[in-house]
Amino acid sequence: MKEKYMETLLAQIREKRARESIRREVEGHISDQKAAYLAQGMSGDQAEKQAILDMGDPVETGAELDQLHRPKPAWGMLALAAVLCAAGLLLLYLAQTHSQSGHNGDFYFQNQCKYVVLGFIILCVVYLTDYTRIAAYSQPACIGILLVLCAAANGILPTYRASELYFSGNIWIGGMLSMDLLLYLYLPLYGALLYSFRGCKARQLFRILLFTVLPGFLAFQIAPLSVSINIAAILFLLFFTAVGKGWLYPSSINAIGTGRFKSVFGKGRTYTKYICALGAALSAFFALMLLAAVNSGYQRTRIQAWLHPEEFAGGSGFVGGMIRNIVSTSRLIGRNTGQAADVYLPDYITDYILTYTIGTFGVLAAAALVILVIVFGARLLYISIHQKNQLGMMMGLACSLTFMIQSAEYILVNLSLLPPAGVYFPLVSFGGSGMVQTCILLGILLSIYRYENVVSEAETYASHAVQ
Fold it and tell me: Percentage of the chain surpassing pLDDT 70?
């Protein structure tokens, strides 16, 4: 009777991935209810029959479960992403009409239209792909990315910088593959890798640390400083999220396979010492990398020019001084009263589109754009943090942190609160590799949201157990 009931119920479930978790859920309810009836003195057959009757009609129950375990559409998030892209295209169109070189402005606008279309195609493809299938290849994918980065760092693969200005232009491998793109795509794969190492043995801790330290080290060797800092910060946050959940403590204290992981906090001095030692080691490593990068003569001059642009007005302080002039003379609505961004500010179409917006359309227009980005980023972070599936939480956290940190960096640079740099405003500013990177990460995050009620923790654990 039970087998027939389950067969009829599962026939109502259209999402094949959800059937096994639903089977376990319903059979668990039947077993619990049967045990309760057995305790009341019923026979085995009577108890099972009554427990099944309590579950209700299999067709109706199956239909209700089908609605609960269907992929969730993310139309609102897709629409908001489209609005941001449209805002970016509108600003780029308006900026190129004011460009001193109309040909160059038209070139930027036409290419950005192509990037937006390509990006949304990629976003939709990744969004419709089950993210656990991507995570299943996280370890070989991470190894592949690290090998490419190592080869580029050692001159095995030819590289060139798209722009030498401010030591922040994208670095390309062979003129086709952006180094920044590879580094940012590494992050959600790294999150999946951390998930796969839950309850690791002590000897496996070295592998985890290698996957954490090596990309940060390579980023400081071959990537722009701003990108290197972003990568190191997100790696650090992801690693200690995993540590805080007790995944990487090399012992058997974790409740492996149950989907419930004990926190290392409050578990004694050994845990505290373990966390402090890891934190101190990684913090020292990344701090040394940062100090080594900032300690170069060029970077010191760059920081001094940002802090005192008037002393470097004819050189490296020119852009910083221009940004401060435009922002300080801005109005709530309309063009500023000082120097015009579209006449004097270099790269305003690409790296400083927000500064251009402040100077040309006013503070309110720029604030509306910033608020829209903050709302979108906050929603992405909320989706990540509130994921029931821990794999989805880690991968989503990597994606949302990337969006938030890149957005914050762009806003701060455009307000002269950080040194001038070639930065990317996700979905808004000009950039082919940046648009592709953002759309892939958004696609992964929206896939996590889409399959939240389909993929169970037990299934995820079974497919990502450490070998």
Answer: 82
d(C-alpha 203, C-alpha 253), whole Å? 16
Residue recorded with tokens 């920044």: 180
Q: What is the pTM of this model?
A: 0.82
Angle CA 323–326–331, to nearest 5: 145
| pLDDT tens string 167-210 | 345 666 655 567 888 999 999 999 999 998 887 766 777 888 89
Q: How many other C-beta atoms lie within 10 A of the C-beta of residue 218?
A: 23
> Cα separation of 137 and 70, whole Å?
25
> CB-based burial of residue 167 (10 Å sphere; 0-12 exposed, 13-18 middle, 19+ buried)?
middle
CA separation for the pair 240, 280 (Å, rounded): 12
What is the mean pLDDT of the segment spanning 313-318?
73
CA dihedral (20, 25, 30, 34) positive or negative: positive
> Which tokens is 446 given?
């929206």
**H/E run at residue 182:** helix 179-196
Model pLDDT for residues 411-453, shown as the tens digit of each residue: 999 998 988 888 899 999 988 889 999 999 999 999 999 888 7
- Rounded to an integer, the average pLDDT of 289-301 is 71
- Alpha carbon distance 421, 227 (integer Å): 10
Provide the 3-class DSSP secondary structure of residue 246.
coil
Burial of 277 (0-12, 13-18, 19+ CB in 10 A): exposed
Fill in the DSSP letter of residue 429: S
Compute the CA torsion angle 454, 457, 463, 467 (nearest 10 deg): 170
Measured CA distances, 280 to 76, 240, 287, 300 (Å): 41, 12, 10, 26
Three-state DSSP class for 267?
Answer: coil
DSSP helix, strand, coil percent of the chain (3-state; round to 5): 70, 0, 30
Give the span between the Cα atoms of 38 and 43, in whole angstroms: 6
CA–CA separation, 269 vs 265, rounded Å?
A: 9
Among 148-157, 238-247, 337-346, 352-361, name the one with the lowest average pLDDT: 337-346
Q: Which two tokens stand for residue 105?
A: 């402005």
CA angle 396, 399, 402 (to 5 degrees): 145
Alpha helices in 415-456 (DSSP H): 432-450
Tokens 């989706």 found at: 383
pLDDT digits (tens, 9 = 90+) for 66-105: 776 678 888 999 999 999 999 999 998 888 776 654 446 6
Residues 120, 85 contacting (CB under 8 angstroms): yes
- HSE-CB at 127 with a 13 A cutoff on CA atoms is 20
